[in-house]
Design brief:
The complex is a heterodimer of chains A (283) and B (274). Chain A is mainly α. Helices cover 72% and strands 1% of the residues of chain A. Chain B is 75% helix and 0% strand. The interface between A and B is large, with 92 and 90 residues.
Chain lengths: 283, 274
């Protein structure tokens, strides 16, 4: 009885849409005539197999994930271990690192678009430091995806710092002491004490980070808001969710978009199953 | 002596590293704040504080329905938070305390849908909203997001940590099940309930994909969607866009800094739910 309202709402707004995503994947439905649904068997999935745009979106998503996950995992682990080793100011720094995760994706992306515009502060710095051409990153096919990576990692590092701080607190300090007595330096202690001690957390952050990163959407949508088509420039940011959105809400093909959404569902479920398997004691 | 020096050097290095990191983390937000106070003609030059002005804020309030977007966002956020606190707290209590047939199955279903991203079910959600005639309405942004599997899970954990004898004692003393829930269990899980309110509030305030899909009429925009639309409306006015960024961000930053002890651990769990 107490559960009634929640069960009803979850049933209608969570469970039913999951099932309907799969059902729609086998149907042909137009956005503007959505009450007319006709079954078309595996047509949508066959089409996905042969659609270069879909392959491209998987490729872009894969590159994005491959850039994001290692970068944020390593950066968060290093920051967390330094953060954990200082006494005063720990809370202050933790707050500062976590702040970006609390802010809106639209706000952060809008700000970074100004920082990485031609002649903008960070575009100039990047040009000086790394010899990248000083240009508007989100409008440049070769720089738009790195731009998304930077915006994304900027927001998520703080989250994983906090996760790793929790993990490092579980490593007994005696191990560090023993290693220090044996003459291990800072780097060696990080490599041989901290890293093995937080290994389960590393696996967890990698898989959770993967699950989050394949869902990238907001940032890619915002950079294409100036009348550009989704996935601009030249498909450089056409991620999987952008592909789904494009098919359903720009090309009005709800069935085809849903078939691609089924692929996303499967990827996320596999990732979740993997986390539960890697960390049986946590599930 | 030498050991002392290396230790000091190490400390300096660590704090230097953390400070650099903190500057990078807060820099973009401070950049937005500073730029939003510059006259459009001054940007991108740096000017002294005495030249800073609220011109952009006046401009954006005069030329875009920002007040309406703020009101929409506040209303929708409040709706989700109030609904979520009531519904998910009841559900969490039921799953933690009440024995009923199908309890295990229900809990397994909650766990199974915990990870499902909205991105994957957006199309059927849109269809439901459209069939109900809810496009461009507040209820489309509130009702579907009240019951939340993660928040139910969170509340179940909170209630499970309470000793059951407390409520049993109350029941023996003649209080009904619901009375003992309200008078004993709820006050003892206030921190869980507050966490839930903060999580639901932040998610809703910052949400973008849902409102940008369900609302096409600027009168129903939330702040995130409105800010995104400012991009094309005031394409050349970076300073005005930054005023929009600050307006969207400030309430969350204030709330975060105030409640950060409560927020950080719960967001860390929520962010890697699974």
């Amino acid at each position: 009885m107490l559960l009634g309202p929640a069960a009803g709402l979850l049933g209608l707004w969570f469970v039913y849409p999951i099932i309907d995503t799969v059902v729609l994947g086998f149907q042909q439905v137009n956005l503007f005539h959505f009450s007319q649904r006709s079954y078309v068997g595996l047509t949508n999935f066959h089409q996905l197999l042969e659609d270069p745009a879909f392959h491209h979106s998987l490729f872009i998503t894969m590159i994005f994930v491959l850039l994001v996950v290692p970068a944020q995992t390593v950066a968060a682990l290093v920051i967390a271990s330094v953060l954990q080793s200082v006494g005063i100011g720990k809370t202050f720094f933790r707050t500062a690192f976590f702040l970006p995760y609390m802010t809106s994706t639209v706000a952060v992306t809008t700000v970074f678009m100004k920082l990485f515009v031609e002649g903008g502060p960070l575009a100039t710095v990047a040009a000086r430091l790394f010899g990248v051409s000083d240009s508007t990153w989100y409008a440049e096919p070769s720089l738009a995806l790195p731009f998304l990576v930077i915006v994304y990692v900027y927001m998520y590092i703080g989250l994983y710092v906090v996760v790793f701080v929790g993990g490092i607190e579980n490593v007994p300090p005696e191990l560090h002491e023993a290693a220090r007595v044996d003459g291990a330096g800072v780097i060696q202690r990080f490599r041989f004490v901290t890293v093995p001690g937080v290994r389960p957390y590393v696996f967890f952050v990698v898989v959770a980070g993967f699950i989050q990163a394949v869902q990238i959407f907001d940032q890619a949508y915002v950079i294409a808001s100036n009348g550009a088509i989704l996935g601009s420039p030249a498909g450089a940011t056409a991620t999987l969710v952008i592909f789904i959105y494009q098919q359903a809400f720009r090309l009005n093909d709800l069935g085809y978009g849903s078939a691609a959404a089924v692929v996303l569902l499967v990827v996320v479920f596999l990732g979740t199953a993997l986390t539960r398997r890697l960390l049986p004691e946590r599930s | 002596m030498i050991a002392h020096h290396t230790r000091l050097a190490g400390k300096v290095l660590k704090y230097g590293f953390l400070t650099a990191g903190a500057v990078m983390a807060t820099g973009p937000i401070l950049f937005a704040l500073y730029t939003s106070l510059e006259l459009p003609a001054d940007y991108p030059r740096l000017v002294w504080f005495s030249r800073l002005t609220l011109w952009n804020y006046r401009y954006v309030f005069d030329n875009a329905p920002v007040l309406q977007w703020y009101a929409n966002t506040a209303f929708v956020t409040l709706g989700v938070v109030v609904g979520a606190v009531v519904i998910n707290t009841l559900a969490g209590y039921a799953l933690a305390r009440i024995h009923f047939p199908g309890r295990t199955v229900t809990f397994l279903v909650v766990l199974a849908i915990l990870m499902v991203p909205l991105q994957a079910i957006l199309i059927p959600l849109y269809l439901l909203v459209a069939q109900l005639g809810w496009l461009n309405s507040y209820q489309a942004l509130i009702v579907p997001f009240i019951a939340n599997p993660f928040l139910i899970f969170l509340m179940r954990q909170s209630f499970q940590t309470l000793p059951a004898d407390l409520e049993e004692a109350a029941v023996v003393d003649g209080a009904g099940r619901f009375r003992s829930f309200l008078k004993i269990a709820v006050p003892l899980t206030m921190s869980g309930i507050a966490t839930q309110a903060v999580l639901a509030g932040t998610w809703t305030w910052n949400s973008f994909m849902i409102p940008v899909t369900f609302t096409t009429d600027p009168g129903h925009y939330m702040m995130t969607v409105g800010l995104n639309s400012l991009q094309s409306q005031f394409y050349t006015l970076t300073t005005v866009q930054m005023a929009g960024v600050v307006l969207l961000t400030v309430p969350i930053v204030v709330m975060f800094v105030t409640f950060q002890r409560l927020i950080v651990p719960s967001f860390a769990t929520a962010g890697i739910r699974g």
